[in-house]
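Hi R.,

As promised, here are both runs. First protein below:
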Amino acid sequence: MMKKETKATDTEEVKDQSAEASSEDIDNVEVIEPEIVDEDAQESADDATKELEKAHKEKEEYYNRMLRLQAEYDNFKKRTQKERVADRKYKAQDLATELLPVLDNFERALQVEPTKETESLIEGITMVYNQFKEAFVSQSIEEIETVGTTFDPNLHHAVMQVEEEGKDKDEVVEELQKGYILNERVIRPAMVKVNK
């Protein structure tokens, strides 16, 4: 029976030693205290946060600026495209404006009574005049209708007013100089006499 008692005491001693060891371990454990944050590190972190916010604001500003520039570029593109279309549509205007007095002179020359001596000359002038008119038509330049139409200040330039019976008020009575339109744009208004 002694042997059993010895074993029991041995077991108790082991328990006591392990209890002592665990309390020693606890005493030997190094307690880590929270570090006190360095003020410089905190300021650096605040500065970094401010820089980040500033960078986000700059990014938004640049993004908005880029959107505005893109919209301006699109508007510029559309505007230049419209201008190009208008240039093509009205490219003949400057030349036509320069040639209108020449056409007027041809018309005056054709109003002369032909004689046997001038017959061939008038025939040549008529051919050149017709070529001019064909060139104008090919460039969409048309004569403005005048006599018998109602006076339109956008198309007609009234230089005289007359009173004629049987004519409506503001009716164009006589054309003094032809007017011309290029693609619905007036190159030169027609000079006319208008009924009162």
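And here is the second one, sequence first, then its structure tokens:
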Amino acid sequence: MLVNARERCDTGQMTATGEPIHRADPHAVSVHSKLNWLRAGVLGANDGIVSVAALVVGVAAATTDVAAILIAGVASVLAGATSMGLGEYVSVSTQRDTERALIAKERRELDTMPQHELEELEQLYREKGLSRETARVVARELTEHDALAAHLEAELHINQDDVVSPWHAAGASALSFLIGAVLPMLAILLPPPEWRIPTTFVAVIVALAVTGWTSAWIGGAPRTRAVLRVTIGGALALAATWAIGALLGVAV
């Protein structure tokens, strides 16, 4: 006799093939979403550090005029934060519109051809390894419970209650960029002229190492590789803009 599929999912018992069924964590979706926001924030801060630092180092290599460095830095911060926010808003809005269109399409299909959708759901679970009988039981019980949610999860991997917000994404991206940009601005403006560039180089490399380690920790990736990747890339960007600024300063 088949055990009720929903009960097995809730109690962590075994499937018909002898594999354990893990009980779904009700907070899994929200935790995953929070990790995505945190990862986006780290990457936004990384962009703020590198782009602003590269620009102010290039200007500082060409001139010691603190007003010129400040103007260039502020312009870079505002332009970068605006660009990050708008880019994230457009990107996430497109994703949200696509998700909403898919949800509406799935709802129409469930209304117009429920039997076909039930068979489709059963086939999806069979493709995941369930036997025909078990897949039929799972498909029927999930359909009775919430047909739309079952199809969205199995077919499209979408949670209708977790559609992304473009405003939240834009705000988080712009804010993280601004936070990241604070360090190179302080490092280039506070020291005396002869220490501006070395101080900024050291501060930026340390900050990039921290953000690289953090992003790798969040994603479960190797820490050393991530740290080397962002620090080497950032150092090359700073070296390139410093060289260009120095050449332009000599030329002028």
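A quick note on the second one: The radius of gyration is 26 Å. Let me know what you think.

Best,
J.
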